[in-house]
Amino acid sequence: MSSAPAILRPVHWLAGALLMLSLCHAGSALSAGNGKESLDDQIQSLKKDVIALNRDLFVLEEDLLYPASTQVAVFVSLDVGKFFNLDSVQLKIDNKLVSSYLYTPREVQALQRGGVQRLYMGNLKAGSHELVAIYTGKGPHGRDYRRGANLTVEKGLGARYVELKIVDNPASEQPDFSIRQWD
Fold this sequence. Notes:
CATH class of the largest domain: Mainly Beta
Order of helices and strands: HHEEEHEEEEE
Number of strands: 8
Distance between the termini: 41 Å
Oligomer: single chain
C-alpha cells in the first residue's frame, strides 16, 4: 500500500507510466541503431525530461495538498545576536502542536544572516484561529530562555502568510518575540 494520499495516487501512477514510456522510447531508439545521437546524449536528455516531470509533479502535489483558498504558511526570521541564541521553536494552531523544530548552529547562523525558514505549511478553514509560538534558547548572560507569543488570525479566502520574528531590543537588553501577518 502506498503512503501517498489517495488523491495523489493517480498522479504518481501517471508519472510512473510516463517514465516507463520514456525509457521504452530510449531503448527502442538504441536498438534501432539510430546513430544520430550517442547513448550519453540520450541519457542526458532522458534525465532532463525526468527532472522536468518531477518539478511539474511537485507543483501539482503542492496545489492539491495546499489549495490557495485554505493555505497557511508560517515562517521564522531572526534579527538577533546579543540577547538571544535560538535553540528551538514550537508552533501550535488552535491548541494543537503542528510543528516543532530544533535548530543546528549552522541554521541559526543562516537565519542571523537574513535567512527565513518555512516552519509550517498547512490548511485552515475560514474563521478565527489562534497561533502560539514557543521559543527556547539562551538569553542574556547565558540563561535558559523560554518565551511565547500568540496571535489570532482571521483566515478568509486566499493564502495566509505569518512570520515569527525574533528581534534584539537594545533598550531593554532583551529579545522581543512577535507574530505578524503578511498582507
